[in-house]
Each structure stands twice: as structure tokens, then as C-alpha cells.
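A reminder before we start the practical. When you read a complex entry, don't treat the lines as separate problems. The point of joint prediction is that each chain is placed relative to the others, so the output describes one connected object in space. Small molecules and nucleic acid strands, if listed, are placed in the same frame. In the example below there are three entries. Take a minute to note the order of the lines before looking further.
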Amino acid sequence: MKRSKTLRILSVVGLLIIGLIVLLPFFWMISVSLKPATEPFAIPARLWPESPTLANYASAFRPEFRTYFLNSMIVSGASVVITVSLALFAAYSFTRGQLFALSFMLGAVVLAQMFPHAAIIIPIYKMMRSWDLLNSYTSLILSYVSITLPVAIWMLRGFLVKLPVSLEEAAAVDGASPMRVFRDIVVPLARPGIISVAVYVLIITWQEFLFALSFTSTNDMRTLPVGLNDFIGQYGIRYGELMASSVMVSMPVVAVFFFLQRYFVAGLTAGAVKG
Amino acid sequence: MKHYISYAALGAALMAQPVFAQDVTLQFWDNQQTESGLSDVQKAAVDRFMAENPDIAIEVTTIPYPEYQQRLLTAVQGGNAPDIATLDQIWLGAFAEAKAVVDLSDRAAEAGLTRDQFFGGAWDSAVYEDALYGMPFNVDVWQFSFFNQDLLDAAGVSSADLSTFEGLRAAAEKMTGDGKFGVGLFGHAGEDTVAVMNSFIFSNGGEVLASDGSCALNQPEAVEALAYVQDLAQFAPNGILSASSGDMRELFLNGSLAIEFWPALEQPTLKSSEINWGFVNGTAPEGKTPVGTFGGWNLAMFESSEHKDAAWRFMQFLVSEEVNGDVVDLIPANTNAAETFLAANREGPDQIMAHLNNAKPRPLSARYLEIADVQMRLYQDVLSGTNAQEAADTACGEIDAIN
Amino acid sequence: MTYKDRWLAWLFLAPTLVLLAVFLYYPMIGTFVESFYSTSFINPNPEFVGFEVYRKIIASREFSEVLWNSVLWTVGAVILQNILGFSTAMLLNQGLPGQGLLRALFLLPFILPGVVTAILWRFMYDPQLGLVNSLVVRLSDAENAVAWLASADTAMIAVIFTAVWKGFPFSMLIYLAALQSVDREQLEAATIDGAGPFRKLIDVIIPSVSSVILVNIVLTLILTFNYFDIIWIMTRGGPQDSTHIFPTIIYETGFGQFRFGEAATYGVFSILVLSVLVALYAIVQRTTSNRRATS
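Here is the predicted structure of the whole assembly.
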């Protein structure tokens, strides 16, 4: 009994230390975002600015920034919907298809995850160009769906493997068509998995940089991560505005995540356990 | 009958020649250097051009430096380049060799645009294999030694001392300590590092490439300069290998840095600060004149442009004496425009002019970026204590293998 | 779905296969082909050169540095991230008060965009202005702070720490979920047998989550190996190339220096090295689990 008490105290201390390491950078980010541009940086660093101000937020929230925000929402939103749907179809085939070729295909899907993006971006750029898709939402959505699909399928497959086949078989015996079985039984049961994959795709696409940089050329098509880069000039970084924008950029994902994290945990668990 | 038709066609073509048959839209890409409010002035100039040339519309896209190179490259590779873009002087060789940009020699000669209207170094940076591939747009020079007057006064150092190698070292030594740093050397893997280090080499009579194109960094003048900077680095803040000139700005602005190396572009930032500052034109050994490294941008027209005549009209407009000063945040490459611009916007215009006229360009090679990569490694090796001669020999081996 | 519904399996799979073929496999095969040509921006008419570019790269000083750095970066970050993730999951799995809130807070770094993470940490590490060193200076008598990113000896450690900071919540989540599937009865039986917490960990918990550990490590291995944003923004591969890894060298060679052929070759090497790492891990994992099964 005594031993378990010391263990608990040690656990709390451990958690506090980890918590400190995790949260300190966020604290610093907010602190810098509140520092007036005219207040020089102190040495050693001051934890909190002398006269905090929201001015950086005001100047960072430019009209372009709102456009970037909207673009990011559209691109990420569409990618989430499409990736999740396609991954669900594919994962269902992989788990229920009973085809030898499928295990080979699954290997190919996992392998695709290993391709370095910097090496494949120019060929993709040329394709987009020939289809006249450059500087469009479509070009980004197509790329994002492709790069997030492999992991999405892997996660959903793990989830579907765990679902009892008996329900589907019973429905099939009752005369339901395969499509019906899929729509009325598999999709509702897989909902936690679907939500977790959606969050994964959202997080990845919300911060994607390389494709967004290469495929968008005008201000009205840029997404947030590329827009953030505007604060980094040839000769320096404007930290205050950058941190203010960063806080704003992170906000939507944080919000979504806090609402959905329960499902995300459940979905990841399934994917990992049965992977 | 056949003849009549071709004459008719010829006639129609001739009629169409003076005025453009239909309105054209030009894509113009520019580097977004600072947030100096330039875009408003630039916009006014572009509007003026469109008013004077109602048949041409201009779409301006400004791109931050860190992404500009990749953007241009992917665009050219994908056959989607703009009509006109500003190219960093150091990129021009590659774009010319790749036949991505148009040889402007004839057009320039026809329009009476000649070298003497621009800074010589800027014009030369647009010349590749005896042909002119760009119009000099803006320039600056690394480095001016900016100093904190209060720190100099406290240490009893005169700003004139900073102009010589010996004086700079002694001053830096005096002003280092108590949380203050004498000199803001920086050595991250970037062109600002290359430009400043080159300037020390140039000022000591050294070169990056000799006239025959072979590497000259391991020659005595260059090695001496490298060893000098290596020694000077002890008076710099910690961690210069990951620091850029921009990182040093914060230290200078909070008063903990006595001397910093920047182009004249830094002046507006310093003017709006509380620091009591001044500058001298770089540093050279006793009795020699400091030689800076040229930097800046050229306007280039892309081969893929379908509106080359219209593009050329716009380029001439941008580099003309009346307009050039309004559309740049560095210094106009047009010397007359530069004089007006410096008098209106910069402290010490004559001093800047002298440094500009004395500056040297970086190697004009299609493979400059590979050379610069080796140089960055060399400078980092030297700043972290490797023997200058040995590091330079290694670097020259690699550079000579490129050429 | 039954045997006679196989058309449905293919129908469901078709869009995915098309997308992956067009946007991942086709470009990658193109890159593979390009690696045998002398392609560069300034050389519009590439020639077939066989393994010439491969030879050139293997002989270069950069290649061995990049290879070593990539292994160090990947293995270091993966091991630390998994150890920290596992430990945190253990700590959060004891029914302590407030652990739900902590779990949510610990996930924050995972959500923060990579670009922002890198800029934030670059600034945190700043030897004069950064928070890390200001704490070091305040808490100890150290006169001068350490310039973490500016020395070839410490830069890799610093970027790995950042990667672990950003990546560990992901591992933590997966382990946390796995721990909830550990058999309670088995744990209680071990307690009755007088096993301490450490013995329980070794004998009961780790064996029952071993499949999760396997998947988790392979996934983080792949994601870390190809992770570009953090190193590129924090160090650009420097100082003195001490943090250059495959993704950064591919980007720098291709986009920074216009040498597409060499970038493609580095891309092929990159996949080879990553496959070897994954295979090595699989072998190690299999032998240890076999040993455990037989002992």
C-alpha cells in the first residue's frame, strides 16, 4: 500500500514535468504574440512582455489572411470528405474482399507512404499543368487525398477488421444487397473510425506546405501555412505577427480536436491494435 | 489570285502591327522584400503604366524570398512561367543557360539602354556569355558596418576605426563583455553569409573565382581574410552558425550588439528604432578601400511569354529614370534614379554611392548556386575553427570539380 | 462481402488505386527513370548515363553525412518518441484525477502545424533571446548559454528533441488506447503473486501490447524519415551539414541548386534506405519475439 502511494506521487511529478515541457513553448508563443513590435527582446528572455498588446493580432488578421483561412478550410474540408470516403471503400475491400491480389495491393498502398514528396512534386506539377489545374483548389485536393490515403486506409482497415462479420452476414442472408449492407451496417458501425481518420486528414492537410507552395501562385489561392511564410522575409522574421498568426492558425484544429478527441482515440486504437 | 490573297494578308498584318490587335495581360512576378509599404507605390506605378498603355493589363504577384526560387523553378519546368519576373542576380546565369529567359541585347541596343545608365556591376550581372538576359532593376551592397553610437562612445571607439581590419578587431574586443557583443557576424547557410564573407575576401584583394574561372579561395589573400574573420568571431554572439543577418537585428535593436553588417536596406528599420546608429562602408586592411559584394535583382522576360513586345514596353518603363525609384525597396539600378532615391530615402547617400560603385559581383556562373553551397560549407567550417587554408583547399577542390 | 461479390471489392478499390497510381506511383517511377539521366535545369537535353549519378553521389562527402544523419535522426526520434509516448500513456492510465484534461493538453504539440513548430523552436533555442537558454542561465550558474542549433555537435540533438516534442503525443494516444485492452485479471493475478510494478510491466503489459508497439514504430519510422518541415526551417540541414537528411537534401539539390537528376537519385536512395530500416526493424522484432516465445 505504501509503495503504491509513492508510485502515485512519482507519477504526478512525472506528469507535471512532461506537462511543463509540453506547455512551455505554447506559453512562449502567446507571450511573443503579445509583445509590441517596438519593445525589444530582453536578454535573458522575459517570460511576459512589459506592456502586452493585441496589436500583432490586429495586423496579422489582414484581408489576405482571411482569404488564406477560407482557402485552407475549403481544401482541408474537401480532402477530409474525399479521403475518408475513398479510404472507407478501400479498407472495406481489403478486410472483406477475400482476394489474393488484395494483400499485394495493400503492400503497394503501404509502400506509397514511403515516397519522398520533394522527389515527386515536379512530375505532379507537370500533370496539373497539362490538365490546366494549377492554382486551383482541385490540384491541392487531389494531391492531399493521394498523400493521406495510405495511412487513412491502414487506420480504417484496422478498425473494420474488428467489426463482427456476423452482422453483415445476417443482413446478407435477409436479402440485403452488398451496397445496402455497406451503407446501413458497416458505415454506422465504423463511425468512430471514420471520425478519427477525418481528424488525421484534417491535421495533415491543415499544415501541408510543399504542395501548397508549388501549386498555388496567386494570393487569392494560398493556404495558411504558405501565408505564414510571408512573415519570413529575405533578411528576417517578424516574430510578433508570426506568433499571433500561428495562434490563430492553430485555433480551428484545436477546437475540432477537443470536440472529437474521444473518437480519435478510439479510432486510432483500433487501427493500431489490429494493424 | 494567290498573290492577291497574300498581299491582303500582308496588308492586314501591317495594319495590325502598330496597335495590338487585342488587349494583353502580362504576368509580373516580384520578390516581396520587406513590408515597407512598397506595394502601394508599386501599385501606383503599375496603374500609371496601364493608363498610358490601355492595351496592356499587368497582374503583379509578389512572393516572399524563401519560396520565390522554388516557385519560379516549378513554373518554368511546368511551362507556366510569368511573362516578366525579377530574378536574383545569382539566378540569372542558370535561367539564361536553361534558355528560360530571353536574350535582350538587341532590344536594349535599339531602345538606347546602355551600361553607363546603370551601376556597372548590376549591368554585368545580367550579362551571360556576352548576351544581355536581364535589365538591371535594383541593387544593394553587402556590407555596410552599422554601429551603435552609444556603445562606441562608452568604449571610447571612433567610428572611423571600424573601417580597417585592425581597428575593427580592436573595437570589437573592447566592446565585448557584460552581455554585450562587439560584432554581429553570422554564418547560417544563406546568401547573406556568403555576401559578407566575400566582402572581407574582396577587401583583402582576394577573389572567389580567378579570371580563368578556377577557384581562388585558397589563394593567400582569401585565406588571410578567412583567418581574420575566424579570429573576429570570438567577439560575436554565441551561435553564429545558425544565425542570419535577420537574427542579429533583434540583438542590435535591443542594444546588445555594437556593430552589425547589413545592406543599406536596413536603414528604414533602424530609423524607426530607438537606437542611436551610424554606418561606415565595410572594412579593409589599412590603406585599402573596402570592397562590398553586389546584390540585387534583374528584370527578365521569359521565353514562354506570348506577349514579348508588350513585356518589353513594361520592362523599359520599370527601369526608366522617373519610375525605377518608385518600384524598388533596395536601390534603383538606374544611376540617375538611384541618386534621387538615396537623397530622399537613405542617410549618407554619397557614401552609399561610393560603396556601390566599388562593389564586386558574385561569380556569374550558371552553376553559381552549387558554388555558393560549397562556399557556405567553407565559411561554416572556418567560423567553427577549422584551419582556413585546409578548409579552403577542400572547398576549391569541390568548386573546381563543378566547373 | 462474399466471394461472388468480388466485383464490388474492385469497384470500391478502383478510385483509390487510380489516385495512387497517378499521383504517387507514376511520379515515383518517373523519378526512378530520371535518376539514370543527367537531368538538370540548365541541361534541357538529358542523356542516359546509367549509374553515373549514383556513383557520383556515393562518392560525395555529403552522401555519407546524409546517410548517417538520416539514420540518427530517424532512430533517435522514433525511440525517444515511443519511450516518452509509452511512459506518458502509462502515467495517464492510472485513474489519477485530472488525467482527461492532461491528455487533451498533451495532444497540443501534435496539432500545431509543422511550420509553426519549427519557427517556434528555432526561436526557443536562440542562444541570446530564446527561452531555453534563458532558463538554463537563470537556473544554473552557466555564464553563457548553449547555442544548440549552431554547433554540429548539438544541432541534431536539438532537432530530434523538437521532433519528439511534436510527435510523442501521437504515440501516446495509440499506447493509451492499447493499454486499455490489457487484461485486468492477468494484472491482478500478477499482483497476488507479489510482482512489483516493474515485473508487471515486463511480464504482462509489454507482451500484451507488443503488436501495437510494432505498428507504432513502423509508422513513426516512416513518418519521421520523410519529415521535412522541422529540419528545413530550423537548420536548413546545417550547420556544416550536420542535420542534412534525405528529404532536405532532395529539396535542396532539386529546388535550391536546380540539379533534378541528382535530386531524383537521392529520392531513390531515400526509399532504399527507408526500406532497409523498416526491414531491419522487422527482423529484430521477429527474433526477439521468437526468443520470448521459446524462453
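Discuss with your neighbour: Chain C touches chain B at residues 41-44, 61, 122, 126-129, 144-152, 155, 235-241, 252, 255-259 (CB under 8 Å). What might explain this?
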